[in-house]
Amino acid sequence: MTIDLGLHALRAAYRAGTLTVRQVIDEVIARIAAAGDDKVWISRVPDDALRETASALDARHGEIEDLPLYGVPFGVKDNIDVAGMTTTAACPGFAYEAETSATVVRQLVAAGAIVIGKTNLDQFATGLVGVRSPYGVPRNPFDADYIPGGSSSGSAVAVSAGLVSFSLGTDTAGSGRVPAGFNNIVGLKPTPGAIGTDGLVPACRSLDCPSVFALSCSDAAAVFEVIAPVRTGPSIGNSFRFGALMPKDAEFFGDAAYASLYVRAIAQLTTMGGTAVPFDYDPFREAAQLLYNGPWVAERTAAVGAFITGADDEAGVWPVTRDIILAGREYSAVDAFEGQYELAALKARADTEMKGLDMLVVPTAGTIYRLADLEREPVLYNSHLGRYTNFVNFFGLSALALPFGFRPDGLPFGITLIARPHAERALLAFGARWQRALDLPLGKTAGKLPSIETDPIAAEDRVSIAVVGAHMSGLPLNGQLTELGGRQESTNRTAPLYRFYALPGDPPARPGLLRMATGGAAIELEVWSLPAATVGRFACRIPAPLGLGNVVLEDGSTVLGFLCESYATEGARDITALGGWRAYLKSAG
User: What DSSP element (H or E) covers 256?
Assistant: First the structure.
């Protein structure tokens, strides 16, 4: 029997009683043994201990509905503490035994997941290549001559090779995204601060965040629900606007295949309802350069510089890592403040570029390198891999790396969606739609996406709708939204482009929102969201002269919303000056 380690496949089999946790763990142990010396693991939970944990969970089968990750095997990047295991950060001389697990690990174990072991990484999480480890280079499952990507190399390979269902990485400069791109898997980089960093060996403490690798967005969403259960913000609708690189900014370092795949990815997004909007990448690129060519290097020195300075030759400090981290001593306090000022100015420019966009879409990396390439250019080529990643945590954004096809030589290519803070669930819902549209292999496995009927994230494929009248919360027609699964996402205002009218007719009273070429004002509204599958049913209930069209919000973004045909406003009372429907109802008594 071939076991699909996808979270939803496992859960269905456990519920049906066709699979036990012990069978799954035996399968994982066998797969790891068959993989041989793949350099994925720095340490592992002993096989007997894993079997004991599996048997204990089998005895708790009746609690499965209370354990969302019941019997799910996962890996942990070895700069995250697991109680009773050694944390090395890929440096033997730094190693210590963790007394307690990081909060993120405790949350996952409490939900029924099983730690299989600690995965290899670029030492002290410094690097995007996956080769800077005295424990060896995790084998890229698509071609062992190529790098696996870092720093979360072992975590990404473990998922792609089907050794675990998901894994934890970390992401400071792209370490939760680049390895996903090189291994044909999903890499979720949450908003900094969304997941606690206690029990994590710091790289740059102000930028670090745990990340999640999985074969599918559906699996990543199930994990994220456990470690960061708060849902915020509207979803990405069937019509959306996304930032695309201009030709002057699209750097692929001579990789024509990756360049072609990015163009095809943009075309795919447009077929899915997206409108590509060219944006100026300069502020993002300049911010990315600050990470390793600015005073933030000193934060890496603050993290482990004292250890490296005192380490002897037996400690196993990687030479390139030593040079990078100790270079932070060259920066002064003045440099740190000036860097903060420069970053603030760049962020303001970046905010302007992102205004009105649902997300930016960039290549996860501009190219992929052979192991031999990194021996010649260990620093330059590493910096190339951070071109589209380094700025994201600086700006406090969320991001999701997604697979998209292969070069002619079979090596994966991926894109990354970058969105506002705390947009993780919106990105995952869109990513699930993306994966279903493409039907690509999942990593290097034979796994399958869960059926849409059993996929909770499919319910998060929602469409935002701006309501300005009787459909607002507490008003007579709000039930038409709630009975279809409507959820209020925010209160907002339109851009100052509209006139607002009280329309005549039978109750309930309704307003009309009309866009103007000149003389418009901002009108108060609520943004609700509906499951995409119910939008058509909702639209059928809207009587003329009202209908759904594009409404421009105060921040320049566009959502579906109620608009009125112009003929119906002739003779209607103009209530624009009141600023919204609730104010009108109050004035009318």
Answer: helix 256-271
DSSP-H helix ranges across 145-244: 153-160, 178-183, 217-227
Q: What is the SS3 assignment for 29?
A: helix
- If one counts every other C-beta atom within 10 angstroms of the C-beta of residue 52, the result is 14
Same fold for the pair 7-290+342-448 and 461-587: no
Tokens encoding 460: 């998060």
Residue 537 bridge partners (DSSP): none
Q: Count of CB atoms within 10 A of residue 439's CB?
A: 8
Residue 370 identity (one-letter amino acid):
R
Distance of CA 294 to the CA centre of its chain: 26
The token pair at 60 is 């708790």
β-strands 462-467, 558-564: how paired? parallel
CA angle 195, 198, 201 (to 5 degrees): 110
For 461-587, CATH gives: 3.10.490.10
Residue 120 CB contacts under 8 Å (≥ 6 apart), including other chains? 39, 40, 41, 42, 78, 90, 133, 135, 136, 138, 153, 154
Residue 502 is classified by DSSP as E
CATH number, domain 7-290+342-448: 3.90.1300.10
Query: Residues 489-543: pLDDT tens digits?
Result: 889 999 999 999 999 988 899 999 999 999 999 999 999 988 877 888 999 999 9
- Of 187, 158, 193, nearest to 174 (Cα)? 187
Unique residue bearing structure tokens 């350099």: 39
Report d(CA 288, CA 394) in Å as an integer. Answer: 8
For the chain, domain boundaries: 7-290+342-448, 461-587
Q: Is 524 helix (H, G, I), strand (E, B) or coil?
A: strand
Give the E-state strand segments of 375-436 in sequence order: 398-406, 412-419
Q: What is the pLDDT of residues 99-157, one digit of tens each?
A: 999 999 999 999 999 999 999 999 999 999 999 999 999 999 999 999 999 999 999 99
Q: Are 188 and 428 in contact (CB under 8 A)?
A: yes
Tokens of 78: 């070895």
Is the bond preceding 101 in cis, omega lying within 30 degrees of 0?
no
Catalytic residue ranges: 77, 151, 175
Answer yes or no: are the C-beta atoms of 122 and 321 closer than 8 Å: yes
Mapped onto helix, strand or coil, the DSSP state of residue 55 is helix
Q: In the chain, what is the greatest distance between 2 CA atoms, to the nearest angstrom?
A: 87
**Among 450, 404, 384, 106, which Cα is nearest to 269's?**
404
Stretch 277-306: mean pLDDT, rounded?
A: 93
Q: What phi and psi values does residue 226 have, to the nearest 5 degrees?
A: -80, -40
